[in-house]
Here is the input.
Amino acid sequence: MVVLRLKKFGRAHHPFYRLAAMDKRAPRDGAVIEELGWYDPGAPEGKQWKFDMDRVQHWFSKGAQPSLTVANLVKKAGGTIPAAAVKALNAQRKPKP
Here is the structure.
């Protein structure tokens, strides 16, 4: 299964992330199928991310599942999350008994 998640780069106390399409079994900073953009939480407002939304939507159409953080960032960037991915995300958010 392909997932969209963030790879961590940067230095201590100054993180920088790349949005990547990866195999679910790969480690966080492991092999990537495709790099889709970046996210810099320390940058000024309005310059914190740059995503290739066409490619993000392409991976969603292929059934890729976003992480919770990626889903929130894609929404902020103006993208849409497919209904199947939203359902899976809501299942992850529910507290386990």
About this structure: The radius of gyration is 13 Å.
